[in-house]
Amino acid sequence: MRVLLKTLLLSFTLTAALLSQAADNRLTLTGSSTVAPLASEIAKRFESKHPGVRIDVQMGGSSRGINDARMGLADIGMVSRALKPTEQDLSAFLIAMDGIGLILHKSNAVNTLSNTQIIDIYIGKITHWKQVGGPDLPITVVNKAEGRSTLELFLHYFALKNSQIKAHVVVGDNQQGIKTVSGNPGAIGYVSIGTAEYEEDRGTPIKLLPMAGQPATVEAVAKGGYPLSRPLNLVIKKTRSGLVKDFIAFAQSAEVKNLVEAQFFVAP
Amino acid sequence: MGIKSINNRADHRLSVVLTLLSGGAALLLALIVLFLVTEAWPFLMSSWRDGASLGLFQSQGWYPLEGKFGMLPMILASLAVTLGAIVVALPIGLASAIFLEFYAVAHIARVFRLLLNVLAGIPSVVFGLWGLTRLVPLITQWQPPGASLLAALLVLSLMILPTITLTSTSALASVPKDLLAGSVALGLRRKTQILHIMLPAARSGITGGALLATARALGETMAVLMVAGNVVQIPTGLFEPVRVLTANIALEMAYAMDDHRASLFTSGLLLTLLVWFLSWGAHRVNRHRREAGHHG
């Protein structure tokens, strides 16, 4: 019993000591699952340049990023969209741009769709590819789950409400969206352009559609002409300083440009 | 009975430690349920205040962004997928168990058992990925969109097959040997021995196993999420996409806040209650079997 007590006491003291020491050198990032992989890579590089600093990156969606940064639960929030007017108590720092593109199965003869046609397909007015000059196949509409910022951006751009959309399949992340479309010749979906281009290069049978006359490519997003693009931000409370500021400056610097490109995003 | 009367000090200390640890496990379970209730509470209360406490069970649609939280389609979908999986897996599982117990040669039985154990050990996300990249495109060629109730129940039935087979095998194996010996002595045919003597005798064990498999099918998340299509609608056909409660939580929890979040915890609570009910059923059936065993 005494040995047990001593061990317990010792481990408590050790943990307390570790915690108090770590407090100054620790950063926590939470939020968007789109930003998280990039932030993890940036964090690794930052840690290797600043020995003793530990950075913890957790996902949970843009809403969590906003919430945690506001409540002080995290030092930095990751948000894959611009800040809303109600979120002006936070400051946002752009670290990359990402675009959302419509994808079809590669075998589909349709090479372009107007915005009206896209809306009609998504609200179920057009249900067959023949109606837009395509193959003799019914259309499978692939939509995103509620709460995803990709969905919010898509709805906002086409001025739709989610209850108007007649989806046949609802997917979670980009990979699931791409696998669903590549396995179904009649499907239409929308995903992050970077991920889609990457998969297209690997031979996955999908193709990206141009949007409002602009090709859906990483270059078009970089030039700023592509209509369905979004900023990837790090957000913090306006009073933050010290290590947080250092990390943000690092994440915006040329030192991480190759990391941004490796993730198929566009460096700002 | 014996444990309490033992006055050996070492044994007494062991029993104290064991009591504390098992008490801790029970407390942990109680805390999980308590956590679910507290997280779901704001939503339950607000829908109660709005006089829409039954709104959960109506089909006004599931559009959290627009404040609509109808769960009925998902409850029905969960039940339909689970029932479908059992209907497919139970006959196959029973047939496999009978084969293992009465027909297979020793080394074939060993290999078969090994395969079942491997099947039981495959992570559900692998089943999901297989379903998404092989099974769903196959169904798409036949009846688009492919991601459907059918795909979900097929993948699930594959996942619960080992559970059903292994529990049925052990139920058949635990039937008293004199029953079989008696039936042999009567000169009954193999088919009659199995169908009319062994199966009825092992019935409660088999039912218990099937109920456990049902609980697993009801709680399965990743695989179903990947192949079911996830459209919130009341299931009307095998080829219609559906969303089950577990997939709903996995799809939206990461992005949910406030009422949306609480409503997801409510669906978690609902699932817990359903699974609880099933395990209670399995427990009752098993107890019945034990008692019956003592009498026989």
Please summarize what this structure is.
With 268 residues, chain A is an alpha/beta fold.
Report what the structure shows.
The complex is a heterodimer of chains A (268) and B (296). The model of chain A has no long low-confidence stretch (mean pLDDT 86). Chain A is α/β, with parallel strands linked by helices. Chain A has ten helices and nine strands. Helix content of chain A is 38%, strand content 22%. Chain A has two domains: 26-97 and 232-263, D-Maltodextrin-Binding Protein, domain 2; 99-223, D-Maltodextrin-Binding Protein, domain 2, CATH 3.40.190.10. Chain B is mainly α and 296 residues long. In chain B, 77% of the residues lie in helices and 1% in strands. A two-stranded antiparallel sheet of chain B has the order 1-2. The two termini of chain B are 24 Å apart. At the A-B interface, helix 3, strand 6 and helix 6 of A face helix 5 and helix 11 of B. Chain B: One of its GO terms (biological process) is phosphate ion transport.
Secondary structure layout:
The complex is a heterodimer of chains A (268) and B (296).
Chain A: H1 2-22, E1 26-31, H2 36-49, E2 54-59, H3 62-71, E3 76-79, E4 90-105, H4 115-122, E5 140-144, H5 149-158, E6 169-171, H6 174-182, E7 187-192, H7 193-201, E8 206-208, H8 218-223, E9 229-237, H9 243-251, H10 257-262
Parallel strand pairs in A: 1-2, 1-3, 5-6, 5-7
Antiparallel strand pairs in A: 3-9, 4-7, 4-8, 4-9
Chain B: H1 2-5, H2 9-49, E1 62-63, E2 68-69, H3 72-103, H4 106-121, H5 124-142, H6 149-173, H7 177-185, H8 190-201, H9 203-219, H10 222-227, H11 245-252, H12 258-295
Antiparallel strand pairs in B: 1-2
